[in-house]
Amino acid sequence: MTKADDLFVRLSGVAALMVPGLALWVRSGYSWGAVVLLLCSLATAGVWLRRRPGRDAWLLFGSIVAMGTVWALDFDPAQGSWSNLDRPAKYLLALPCLLYVLAYPPRVRWLWAGIAVGACGAGLIGMYQALVLHLPRANGFTNAIQYGGLSLLLGLMCSVALLVLWDRWKPWQRAGWAVGILLGLEGSLLSESRGGWVVLPMALLFCVWLQGRSGQPRKAIIGAVLVVVGAVGLMAFKANEVRLRVDEARQEITQYESRGDAASSVGQRLAHWGLAWRMGLDRPLTGWGRYGYEAEKQRRVAAGEAHPIVLQFSHAHNELLDIFAKRGIPGVVVLLVFYGVPLVLFWPTRRRVFPGAAGVLDAEGLCLRMIGVLLPVSYMGFGTTQVFLGHNSGTMFYLFMGMLVLAILQGRERLRLQTPGQAAAALS
């Protein structure tokens, strides 16, 4: 490896730390690592353009192109605004970053550091905002729902890293991961984002199942119990707030079902979901488009066919229903592909986590794959009550965490094919 190659591998590592590490506790922190990758990709274009990324990389590349194309359909020159190109531009700029990071994969230790720092930073900024600034809901530097979801996801990633690689960590490192888990959960709790609380048990059970079927059932069960105990312990400090939020949700559902009252958090979501479903059924092949969606909402409200509350938001508060109303069934298919490709690429099959003839568990590979699977699984959960990909934080975290995990996995595989001595030195 030349000095230039070593430099760009190190810069990839810096980006792998920054993407999760700065995501929530630094203003626009989710973009800093992406900027590093973009600048490096421009500087090394002559290298990665000559390399073949491989089938897995092309699948991820294609899913990014497809999703970016769906967002690009929102652009309408007749509306006189170029701001709608902001979303598809992120997908376009992610493509050279993907090819660069595959050519110069970072060492995995940078990602571990980034996840730990990100979870701790998320919890600490949440505590500062709640206890010092006395904000009603912690939000980091995004909105409370996005912040709460990503803080929870970082906490879950810490739990995976701690449990799957338990034997690797020294006692002080285990303690650090445990702090990261608690602070990640605390950030989500302080956001009072109920969508995250729904995702937690689903994601936790999913992680337990994946870890158990991969040869670590005892660690999986013990870890899940400890995470639940930690979450319950943290909730005890905000028991009244949690109880109020749960009671509010029940009351709002009852009020909507009995009187059609949509002037509440849950009520307006139910109103949006029903309207988006009906609009999608009216144009299942093409959808209404972004501007057509807004115009049709106004028409239906004026005609008494929809509650006026739906005019206050530009999306349906549900990822699938929103894209169904705006882009029809083709848009839904693209979104499912965008979720499904990482699931396929990272799924921890027996052949992947027990490589080679010896059949020894590759714990680090399993950990990376579980973190990769957590991304789409969590986003599908968050997307039931929020258009998570409609916000910069959600889009950037998904795009760049996915490509980093894939690059690290492919880099480890290339090293494994080298001589045993070289691979051991590089992976240490």
Low-confidence stretches: none
Terminal Cα span: 17 Å
The H/E string reads HHHHHHHHHHHHHHHHHH
Please give the share of residues in helix. Answer: over 70%
Count of helix runs: 18
Broad structural category: mainly alpha
Domain O-antigen ligase-related: 183-336
InterPro entries: O-antigen_ligase-rel_domated, WaaL-like
Membrane topology: Multi-pass membrane protein
Transmembrane segments: 7-26, 32-49, 56-73, 88-104, 111-132, 144-165, 172-190, 219-237, 328-347, 388-409
Give structural notes:
Helices cover 75% and strands 0% of the residues. The protein has 428 residues and is mainly α. The protein has one domain (3-76, 83-240, 348-427). It is globular and about 70 Å long. The relative contact order is 0.13. The chain crosses the membrane at residues 7-26, 32-49, 56-73, 88-104, 111-132, 144-165, 172-190, 219-237, 328-347, 388-409. It is an enzyme of class 2 (transferase).
Question: In terms of topology, how is this protein built?
Answer:
Blueprint: H1 3-21, H2 29-43, H3 45-48, H4 55-72, H5 86-103, H6 108-132, H7 144-164, H8 171-191, H9 194-213, H10 217-236, H11 239-259, H12 265-282, H13 289-302, H14 319-346, H15 350-353, H16 363-382, H17 392-416, H18 420-427
